[in-house]
Amino acid sequence: MSTKSHSLVMLRRNSKHIARNPTSVFNAVLMPIVIMLMFVYMFGDAFEVGVDYIDYATPGLMLLAVCYGLGSTATAVNSDMTKGIINRFKVMDVSRGAVLTGHVVASVLTNLVAIAALIGVAFLLGFNPAASLLDWLGVVGMIVLLGFAAGWLTVALGLSAKSPETAGLAAVPLVMLPFFSSAIVPAEKMGPGLREFAQYQPFTPIIETLRGFLDGTPSAGDVIPALAWCVGIALVGYLWARSTFKKRA
Hints:
With 249 residues, the chain is an all-alpha fold. It has helices at 3-19, 22-43, 53-68, 70-82, 85-91, 96-124, 133-160, 164-170, 172-176, 194-200, 203-215, 220-248.
């Protein structure tokens, strides 16, 4: 079998594992919706953002949906490494790269399902984007690139962890980081120190890019840094994952 065929087999395997794990499905698909309902209904009126809060918050919650599924990916990768599954694959002559690629692609597909569900709920809550078809394609492209980058970084974290439990905890900073960005409130409304951190951390330009596409007014000042961050994170994650996998396998 070719590496492509091996990757498809690994993708099918990982997808079945995700579907059979209620906790991972909840974290990846339902938890972002719960957070959306909480912020829109409980805290939305407390934030002055210049537009309907659902329109402001949806792009940030889309990024949060990507991050919430990462813990299960890190745990699954580490379980494969620490419980002898990789050795069985080696005996079966399965491509090593396919094992990692399968986890990343499964993570991206889970992200797309989660965000589709999130956007559906957002429309029910009054979400009213001004995006054209081309803008929506930009949103999808940004989400796929972000999911790809976050997926490789999470795979690297999972491979580096000592156990499945610590692998899940390794992804927690990625889940928390969106809360210290412009996802919930504009960065300029934050206090000194936190404001500067929010402005210059990687997730803020990505969120602002999604927000610009959904508003129908994408800005090169946001798109270029967002693309640079995603490519950089993906490259670091990929090289780190490949190096760690070769050492541990």
